[in-house]
Design a protein that fits this description.
With 116 residues, the protein is α+β, with helices and mostly antiparallel strands. The protein is built from 3 helices and 4 strands; from the N terminus they run H-E-E-E-H-E-H. Helix 2 packs across helix 3. The radius of gyration is 13 Å and the shape is globular. The model has no long low-confidence stretch (mean pLDDT 90).
Length: 116
């Protein structure tokens, strides 16, 4: 579980991160990364939110995908600058993707969105 300070929880926070951020898609993941915009944002830690729609599977499958993504993102959150918001959206094939390939997709998407 991620600490509350590192989670996006409100719909407006998700929408702002998607609207203002850069997007990269790799494999079965889409990553939206919104860099800090004002000086006050740099005081808070990087935050992340997950979107796993019903097209991925039933409730049990969606929760399993979220747990796997949370575990993968937890290690990568420290390298993001303070004040950054990130939204990770799973596509329908995420439930069938092996853990290692899911990690590769996340790393590739983060590298791509970080280069822009």
């Amino acid at each position: 579980m991620l600490p509350a300070a590192q989670r996006l929880r409100r719909r407006g926070e998700f929408a702002a991160a998607v609207r203002a951020g850069r997007r990269a898609s790799r494999g079965v993941l889409v990553v939206h990364l919104s860099p800090p915009s004002v000086a006050t944002d740099s005081a808070r830690p990087a935050r992340v939110g997950f979107v796993v729609p019903k097209t991925v599977g039933g409730a049990v499958v969606r929760n399993q995908v979220k747990r796997r993504l949370r575990h993968l993102v937890r290690d990568r959150l420290a390298v993001l600058p303070p004040g950054t918001d990130m939204v990770v959206r799973a596509l329908p094939g995420a439930a069938d993707r092996p853990y290692r390939r899911l990690a590769d997709d996340l790393d590739a998407a983060l590298a791509r969105v970080g280069r822009r």
